[in-house]
Amino acid sequence: MLEKEYDLPDRVLNDTSANTNLAIPQNFQFGVQKIPTFSYFVQTVALNEMGGPAKTVPFAIGPTVLLPGSSANIGACVVTFLVSEDMSNYYEIIKWMREATPYKDFSEVLPFKEVFHEAFLIYYTNKKNPYKKITFRGIFPTELSGLDFTYSDTEAKPLTATVKFITGDYIVENL
């Protein structure tokens, strides 16, 4: 019936997905190879954006046509985490950043190949079974938020920080 009315194959509007369960954003674990104690404190992970600008192709007659671009970019992976009482997880990221970029001098800077590491995001099903693993290759931190200390809050809230990671590539695997 739909095929005749809308000139669409019937399966386009009537097929249901093989898996109709919805993704739950709390069903994950995130860890970084370089800082194994970091995983416990992770609160949110915003996965990388991926894409690139469309290529504009003008024609002599008619409208400009947009085509897929010639390159793809992988954006930053943004992680929010609770800061441990001794602030060791916060300082580990600062140390990692100083190993990659000279601040005062080059005394803390490591060779490039020692700056890049791997990170993992394990995604779980609604029944808490491991389902997908995303491996971030060549990851390194580029930005770390400051910490907000305040007397004005009457409720004791833990300190949180945000770190931006750049990655060379990521691979998604079924578990």
3D structure, described in words:
With 175 residues, the chain is mainly beta. It has one domain (22-49, 62-174): Pnp Oxidase, Chain A (Roll). The chain has 3 helices and 11 strands, in the order ααβββββββαββββ. The chain has helices spanning 2-6, 10-14, 88-100; strands spanning 28-32, 42-46, 50-51, 55-57, 65-67, 73-74, 77-82, 117-124, 130-144, 160-166, 169-174. The strands form 3 sheets. Strands 1, 2, 7, 8, 9, 10 and 11 form a 7-stranded antiparallel β-sheet that branches. The chain is extended.
Number of domains: 1
Look at the helices and sheets and give the structural class: mainly beta
The CATH homologous superfamily is termed Hcp1-like
Which whole number gives the mean pLDDT? 84
Identify low-pLDDT runs.
none
Defining traits:
7-stranded antiparallel beta sheet, extended, 35% strand, mainly beta, 11 strands, 3 helices, Pnp Oxidase, Chain A, 175 residues, 13% helix
Concise account of the structure shown:
By secondary structure, the chain is mostly beta strands.
